[in-house]
Amino acid sequence: MPDNPTIATLPDSQGHNHRADVQLNQLQCDSTKPNDIRPNAIMPSAIEPNAIKHESVVAEQKQKVIFIGLPRTGTTSVSVALLEQGLKVAHMAFTKAAFMQADAISDAPCFSDFKQLDKLFPDAKFVYIERELDSWVPSMQMLLSRMLPHLDAKSGRFHPIMKRSFRHSFGVGVVENPQDEQHLIDCYQRHKTEVVNYFAGRHDLLCIDVSQQGALGQLLAFMGLAATENQQNFPKLNVGRNVASWDEYKHPNKISANASGPDKRKFFDYKI
User: Does residue 254 sit within a domain?
Assistant: First the structure.
């Protein structure tokens, strides 16, 4: 996991054993039309009220790219690749300053808050990262096995915004077993459907699978960046049981998730 998710700088505001229908993997991440896949997972309204309080940062921003794929889809690989392109990258962002300082932001809270971030950053580009369920589900189960004690609403040591993102997207603290295979499949399905439908008819969403040949070149072209012949594919990072690659990767362009700025460590004034 990235960049000290254990540091809280804000006050705290079954078992199924079957795979998803192959129809989910055939869902086209195409921003030109909505999709009709029934979202079986727990809906956000069942977790938290949808009260959004808007503010504008348009005057301060330069164009950004916001990655809204779920954890364990390749966010570390994307982040490292963009660091090597000279961009400032935040892999998780828990303060307004982290968002403002970074050119690219991924992971929490982007995957849960993409609708609110789209309103705050109307000129931003968005990238949905997808992954085959056969590999994503066990990877996510492994991640949750390590994270769940620290995501507890009262005793967990992870940042409140991270807790909120996992509560919203995976029902952590709401459902009996967030690691349940079918529950995770449903969460993935609901999230992907929401992303594709929300961006339907727009041209500021790109969908990529970092394991596919040419995915990096496709991303760089979407961002208006040149790619050499050797910059077409993503490096393979954060695989297996290693979930600390971002912390271990040293680069001067890394932006801390807890970066401080004019508003110190305040976050944006919205709720989901």
Answer: no
